[in-house]
């Protein structure tokens, strides 16, 4: 009884922990770790403060909504999240998508209200996907297409900051005579441009120091809060400069903590319909970027994460944040790296303490940011955006040893990249998604089929050296067996590709005279559906009319069982071939299958597709000069009066397609 009660209590505890992971890590939390979490959390809070203003500017929302987004969402993530180092807050990519979605709204106040509604919608979608366990949907984004999209987004973000980097709107003109040097070159704009260049260099230098293994301790500390260093320098510079040289700055920021209120339009059907496409796109980007960042450091730290829990955590965080004036939030890669390097061990340091720091800032210290130059925020965004650009993937794709015709990875990357730059961020993401799905369909419908050859025996004392079968297209010195075609299908055999495979087999048999057997190497074919099995059955019958046998080798467990049910007792294939290796299949084909008549040309024959019941009534005339093939068909020697051999060893075989289905 006591054991049962203990087991029940343990089961309840595990169930609670699966919903609220804080129940598990909170009980195991060591108080000795609080010092590291406290120091790292304060560092993250300072970084998050400067980043949140910059990201709010990128999202075209009121600047104060940046810090608002870093209060409630991180606290909610502490309850539901499974990554100990993930830092939830604003992010450049999600802020860019938010700004693109709201760019047609003229008023800043209306854009701010729409941001909160968008946060609620994104949170709702993420939470529903987590509850319904739909995490697999985001796997339709191929890494190559996503890399091109993210790199293109980074370039778009940098270009969008040119106005703030140069201290004002970029000059436009229709002719050379319309250009005004006096408007383009002012003391304020010159100062902003030079200051921006200097800040970008400093941020890049501090990033290199952060990545370096050996550096001075105070430089290492400064690199952890490089955004705050740049913002502080900008405040001092802007406050001390004369008015004519002073760069555009933030100015007065509304202080105080926001009231908890329902976002405008949350019950409006028209608003939901209008923003739904943008919300779906942003939700996908939130999860993909957040899960990738969190998983990288979870693997480094040696613990596991739950995709379902992350969906729910990010969803509830965004949903609740929308009621407190937040814009859509995500897990920041750079902040998560800071949390890992600063020795943070729990969400207390990565989320709770930074959120408390932001609360103090919003309540008491917004005046400190009065003189923060807008060019400083733009520099923070630009350097962060350059960090997300994934040029290395393009280099890897380019160096991949493939022919130009096969180097589709480079083409997919470039299409996603250029589509994002020239068609817009949302169109770029649609291109990336469409290409990913299109390539998946293409690979399923047109899997690679290799003809295998035997490697020559290099060492006489190695009995296994000659048993290596490799694709002849990739290994020029591999030699095929005379009279035997060995084919390997790389992937599933299903309704989408079985016709193509059977056509390929028939074409190869017709092109190569004197073929006695085709060996199907199934080591890379884990599944066969019913359409594929029916096509294989038709192929066996069609090949036998030309005196060619189909023999299986290296068949995996699931396809083997299905082939046994459909063809095992029919005599169409040798029962033992379902357990053959390639060498055993070759030996069987040489000894048990007779070659076709030499003077009879091989013609490609399209077999009429029909069902198994109709094939049971069919008979083939088999020549007495082909006793081995007759033995293969019947499974034993034929009677002297039987030149007519049934396609199946049992006339009343019950292995029909209907019973199989």
UniProtKB/TrEMBL annotation:
InterPro entries: SLC26A/SulP_dom (IPR011547), SLC26A/SulP_fam (IPR001902), STAS_dom (IPR002645), STAS_dom_sf (IPR036513). It comes from the Eukaryota. One of its GO terms (cellular component) is membrane. Pfam families: STAS, Sulfate_transp. Keywords: Membrane, Transmembrane, Transmembrane helix. GO terms for biological process: transmembrane transport. It is found in: Membrane. The chain crosses the membrane at residues 71-97, 117-137, 144-162, 190-207, 228-245, 275-299, 352-372, 377-398, 410-441. Residues 474-589 form the STAS domain. It is a multi-pass membrane protein. This is STAS domain-containing protein. The lineage of its organism: Eukaryota, Sar, Alveolata, Dinophyceae, Oxyrrhinales.
């Amino acid at each position: 009884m006591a054991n049962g009660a203990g087991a029940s209590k343990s089961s309840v505890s595990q169930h609670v922990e699966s919903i609220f992971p804080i129940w598990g890590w909170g009980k195991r939390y060591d108080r000795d770790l609080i010092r590291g979490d406290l120091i790292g959390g304060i560092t993250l809070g300072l970084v998050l403060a400067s980043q949140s203003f910059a990201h709010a500017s990128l999202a075209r929302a009121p600047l104060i909504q940046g810090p608002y987004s870093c209060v409630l969402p991180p606290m909610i993530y502490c309850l539901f999240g499974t990554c100990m180092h993930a830092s939830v807050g604003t992010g450049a990519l999600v802020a860019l998508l938010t700004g693109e979605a709201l760019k047609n709204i003229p008023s800043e106040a209306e854009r701010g209200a729409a941001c909160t509604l968008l946060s609620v919608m994104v949170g709702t979608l993420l939470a529903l996907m987590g509850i319904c366990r739909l995490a697999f949907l985001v796997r339709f984004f191929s890494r190559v297409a996503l890399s091109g999209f993210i790199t293109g987004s980074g370039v778009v973000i940098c270009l969008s900051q040119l106005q703030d980097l140069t201290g004002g709107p970029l000059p436009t003109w229709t002719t050379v005579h319309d250009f005004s040097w006096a408007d383009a070159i002012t003391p304020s704009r010159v100062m902003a441009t030079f200051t921006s260049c200097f800040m970008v260099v400093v941020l890049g230098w501090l990033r290199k120091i952060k990545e370096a293994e050996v550096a001075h301790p105070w430089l290492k500390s400064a690199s952890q809060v490089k955004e705050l260093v740049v913002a502080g320098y900008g405040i001092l510079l802007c406050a001390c400069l004369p008015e004519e040289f002073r760069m555009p700055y933030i100015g007065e920021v509304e202080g105080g903590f926001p009231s908890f209120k329902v976002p405008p339009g949350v019950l409006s059907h028209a608003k939901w319909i209008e923003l739904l496409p943008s919300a779906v796109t942003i939700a996908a980007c939130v999860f993909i970027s957040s899960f990738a960042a969190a998983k990288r450091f979870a693997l480094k730290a040696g613990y596991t994460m739950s995709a379902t829990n992350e969906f729910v955590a990010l969803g509830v965080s965004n949903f609740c944040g929308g009621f407190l004036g937040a814009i859509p939030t995500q897990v920041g890669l750079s902040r998560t790296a800071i949390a890992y390097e600063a020795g943070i061990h729990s969400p207390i340091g990565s989320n709770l303490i930074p959120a408390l720091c932001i609360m103090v800032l919003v309540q008491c210290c917004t005046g400190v940011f009065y003189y923060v130059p807008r060019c400083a925020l733009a520099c923070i965004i630009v350097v962060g955006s350059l960090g997300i650009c994934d040029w290395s993937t393009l280099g890897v794709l380019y160096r991949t040893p493939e022919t130009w015709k096969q180097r589709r990875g480079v083409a997919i990357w470039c299409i996603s990249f250029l589509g994002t730059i020239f068609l817009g961020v949302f169109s770029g993401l649609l291109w990336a998604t469409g290409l990913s799905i299109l390539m998946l369909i293409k690979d399923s419908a047109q899997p690679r089929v290799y003809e295998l050859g035997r490697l020559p025996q290099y060492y006489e004392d190695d009995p296994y050296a000659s048993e290596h079968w490799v694709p002849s297209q990739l290994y020029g010195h591999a030699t095929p067996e005379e009279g035997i075609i060995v084919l390997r299908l790389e992937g599933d055999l299903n309704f989408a590709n079985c016709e193509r495979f059977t056509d390929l087999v028939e074409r190869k048999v017709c092109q190569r005279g004197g073929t006695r057997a085709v060996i199907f190497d199934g080591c890379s074919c884990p599944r066969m559906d019913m359409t594929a099995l029916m096509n294989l059955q038709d192929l066996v019958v069609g090949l036998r009319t030309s005196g060619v046998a189909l023999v299986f080798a290296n068949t995996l467990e699931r396809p083997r069982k299905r082939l046994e049910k459909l063809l095992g007792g029919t005599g169409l294939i040798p029962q033992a071939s379902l357990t053959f290796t390639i060498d055993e299949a070759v030996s069987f084909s040489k000894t048990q299958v007779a070659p076709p008549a030499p003077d009879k040309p091989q013609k490609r024959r399209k077999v009429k597709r029909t069902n198994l019941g109709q094939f049971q009534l069919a008979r083939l005339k088999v020549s007495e000069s082909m006793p081995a093939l007759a033995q293969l068909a019947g499974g034993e020697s034929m009677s002297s009066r039987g030149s007519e051999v049934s396609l199946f060893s049992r006339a009343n075989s019950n292995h029909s397609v209907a019973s199989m289905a």
